[in-house]
Amino acid sequence: EAEVAQSPRYKITEKSQAVAFWCDPISGHATLYWYRQILGQGPELLVQFQDESVVDDSQLPKDRFSAERLKGVDSTLKIQPAELGDSAMYLCASSPVGNEQFFGPGTRLTVL
Amino acid sequence: DQQVKQNSPSLSVQEGRISILNCDYTNSMFDYFLWYKKYPAEGPTFLISISSIKDKNEDGRFTVFLNKSAKHLSLHIVPSQPGDSAVYFCAASGISGGSEKLVFGKGTKLTVNP
């Protein structure tokens, strides 16, 4: 069964360092999402891509976060510099046409 | 302001009994609703959904009910099994800023006791 792949699964970093997360969506899914989930909260959308174009990045803290999907397939989310408050689960999801989104296993980020 | 609310952070039920998880929403523009299940250290997994033109959708042990006038939906699990123990997220879908978006509630942690 096709799955969304994410790496790394866990990342520990010190504040002010740069971190990057990678996502490979299900083949053929044109829409890709990055979410942040803080413990005890639901996932919150950071950025949405349609193919290689950003559709929505209104909730992305652009002073430190960046996201790209250069060839419209896999995607990278970067944080530079990381802050203590960035500790969270970062989830990637993909979607064919329609409402259902398929999530990857996530990357658990801890900033020390 | 939270557009999707799950007011019960946790729920505990006995194996074999019914689990009822509730969700309220405020935005009348939402036209599709989904439930996701999440185990620790894993991503959310799609469980069941319902369109705003329906009031009930059933899939095996899982049934979702939608009351549009009350802006309320619920997920029923019958019978509940210990493997159902997880965090359940309610999500609502609608067009915002020209694109389809999912808005999630905070989740309800379900514990099914053997």
Task: Compose a concise summary of this entry.
Chain A has 112 residues and is mainly β. Chain A has strands at 5-7, 10-13, 19-24, 31-37, 44-50, 53-56, 65-68, 75-79, 88-95, 102-103, 107-111.
Write up what this structure looks like.
Chain A is mostly beta strands. Chain A has strands at 5-7, 10-13, 19-24, 31-37, 44-50, 53-56, 65-68, 75-79, 88-95, 102-103, 107-111. Chain A contains no helices and eleven strands. In chain A, the strands form two sheets. In chain A, strands 2, 4, 5, 6, 9, 10 and 11 form a seven-stranded mixed β-sheet that branches. Chain B has 114 residues and is mainly beta. In chain B, strands 2, 4, 5, 9, 10 and 11 form a six-stranded mixed β-sheet that branches. Chain B has a five-stranded antiparallel β-sheet with strand order 1-3-8-7-6, with no helix packed on it. The chains are: A mainly beta (112), B mainly beta (114). Chain A binds chain B through residues 4, 6, 9, 40-45, 48, 50, 55-56, 58, 91, 93, 99-106, 108, and chain B through 4, 9, 32, 34, 36, 41-46, 49, 89, 91, 93, 96-102, 104-107.
Please write out the topology.
The complex is a heterodimer of chains A (112) and B (114).
Chain A (H helix, E strand, L loop, with lengths): L4 E3 L2 E4 L5 E6 L6 E7 L6 E7 L2 E4 L8 E4 L6 E5 L8 E8 L6 E2 L3 E5 L1
Parallel strand pairs in A: 2-11
Antiparallel strand pairs in A: 1-3, 3-8, 4-5, 4-9, 5-6, 7-8, 9-10, 9-11
Chain B lengths: L3 E2 L4 E5 L4 E7 L6 E7 L6 E7 L4 E4 L2 E6 L4 E6 L8 E11 L2 E6 L3 E6 L1
Number of strands of chain A: 11
- Largest sheet of chain B, described in full? 6 strands, mixed
Q: Give average pLDDT of chain B, whole number.
A: 93
Listing every helix as H and every strand as E from the N terminus to the C terminus, the arrangement of chain A reads EEEEEEEEEEE
Distance between the termini of chain B: 38 Å
Primary descriptors:
heterodimer, A: 112 residues, mainly beta, seven-stranded mixed sheet, four-stranded antiparallel sheet, 0% helix, globular, B: 114 residues, six-stranded mixed sheet, five-stranded antiparallel sheet
